[in-house]
Amino acid sequence: MFLTNQMITEKLNIEHTLCVPYVRGASDRLRRQLAQEGVNVIFLRGQTLGKYLINGGPPRNTRRKNVVYKIPCESCNFCYIGETSQWFDERENQHKRSIRNCDTNNGIYMHILKHPDHVIAWDKVTFLDHDRNFYARRMKESLYIDIFSKTGVMNLEDGMQKNQCWNAIVPILREEISEKNRV
Fold first, then answer.
1. Please, are residues 119 and 152 in contact by the beta-carbon 8 Å criterion?
2. Residue 160: what pLDDT?
């Protein structure tokens, strides 16, 4: 159950309370300034754009569907970012079949073709996100391609075409992902 400002105020029996989302760097200053005016500030966790776009993936289980996934190269920092509505293990087999058949439309095969000594780390596949909505999943795939492009992606395409306004949040999302990986 989500508590509203009024419910929190009633529970705490405080007349001058402000419930706001926490914003790093500004919230503590706001709390100190409002405390001088006799206003108590309570910070709530809000739904952030980063949490909506990057909600984390399900555990490593190849019987998942509707996922955005990352297949790394064991020999370098490159990775392949993809999305699928089908069972992931079936999609993984399609990638492996494309490599065996020398499919030049497959980014993983093209990476191996350019670097014959590189090894794809099939055992280190991670699910970055999941979404049942096709367009949301495609947008997330596209954002992840942009995020990981700094270290290198095997994808032959940039994903879904998106408005350039999304480019402004890519560095923020990149930082949020790196913070999650450090923990």
1. no
2. 77
Which tokens go with 7?
A: 């419910």
pTM: 0.65
Give the Cα separation of 182 and 10 in Å (integer): 39
Kindly give, in sequence order, each residue whose CB lies less than 8 Å from that of residue 78, ignoring residues fewer than 6 positions away: 72, 111, 151, 152, 153, 154
Which structure tokens are listed for 98? 């494309």
Nearest to 112 by CA among 135, 96, 123: 96
List per-block mean pLDDT (blocks of 10 residues) for the chain, which spans 183 residues: 55 64 75 80 66 52 84 96 94 95 96 95 92 90 90 88 78 73 50
Domains and CATH numbers, the chain: 5-46 (no CATH), 52-182 (3.40.1440.10)
Which helix (H) or strand (E) segment holds residue 124: the answer is none
